[in-house]
Amino acid sequence: MGFFKKRADMTISKNTAKAIHGRHVEYAVMRDPNDYSETVVGRDGYISIIDRRVIVHCEGKDLYNESLDKARVWELMSLNGAAFDLDDGRTLVAYYSYYRK
């Protein structure tokens, strides 16, 4: 067995679920794999796990709502946000704080 799993086989771990539950989201972007662009789709929200579902909620709408068993989620290496794979190949990235250089 290798060190890495294929992305399609990855599901959310208990440690990741604990780390992201209840986190405030400053803003969320949608990454398009076709042209590598990012579009802001929401601001000022939260990530929560309710009734075995992972939910990203911003500006009064659910941006991501998937069962805990099927959710493909991981935290960014910077620990500044989390990425959520969607079924259509796009990725939703929820940032916990603004990145300013």
Write structural notes for this entry.
The chain has one domain (about 10-95): PH-domain like (Roll). A hairpin with a 4-residue loop joins β1 and β2 (about 35-50). The protein contains one helix and seven strands. The chain is mainly β and about 100 residues long. It is globular and about 35 Å long. A seven-stranded antiparallel β-sheet has the order 4-3-2-1-7-6-5, with helices on one face.
What's the number of helices?
1
| Shape field | globular
Helix content: under 10%
Strand order of the largest sheet: 4-3-2-1-7-6-5
Give the termini distance in whole angstroms.
40 Å
Q: From the coordinates shown, what is the CATH architecture? A: Roll
> Could you give a short account of the major beta sheet?
7 strands, antiparallel
CATH C-level category? Mainly Beta
Number of strands: 7
Question: What's the quaternary structure here?
Answer: single chain
